Model the fold of this input.
Amino acid sequence: MLKIQAEAQVPTEYGNFRMIAFSEDENDWMPHMAIIAENTDLSKPINVRFHSECITGEVFHSKKCECGQQLDAAMKFIHENGGIIIYLRQEGRNIGIINKLKAYCLQEKGFDTVEANLKLGLPADDRDFGDAIEVLTILGVKEINLLTNNPAKMKIVEDSNIRLNKRIPLQINSTSDSESYLKVKKDYFGHLLEDDDDIINRTL
Done:
């Protein structure tokens, strides 16, 4: 069972947020985080983003994925419109940074993101969004608007006691470095992505 271990107000370049650490053990150095915008009424339908950790994209600004840009866009949107980002410690689709770098090495040899994971004997995507549902439940959230392109995230909400009011797309324009990555997201995982030429608002 996840528990609230600590919380504090944190000012960011996007605005002030209440950050809450959730884990089973207070000594866990890598807890999940709920990042809640000021003046968010948790008793009403709220905007929510499930975001899995990506140190390469978020910290080092890797161009191989759009994770850092998605997190930035989500923080801006949540600050302006209210809501929660649930930051899940699931680096590299939950294979960890070491395996992720090994997969990157295989990608340099021509394998796509799924093929590289499978060649390493790892799942294509080993993430579990059940903890995000548990966090929302602890916070007393009953109904959400989900910022996502991923139907798997929508399904986990639909199968829970939390009502999915609507989906809010969160699409970032592709680059020459991320084009293959996004193509796999769309073709293999079924992410709800438009072609770049069809996108009017590429970010929130």
Observations:
- The chain has a mean pLDDT of 88.
- Helices lie at 55-58, 67-81, 91-94, 97-107, 113-119, 130-139, 151-158, 179-187.
- Residues 3-90+127-198 form a domain with the Rossmann fold fold (CATH 3.40.50.10990).
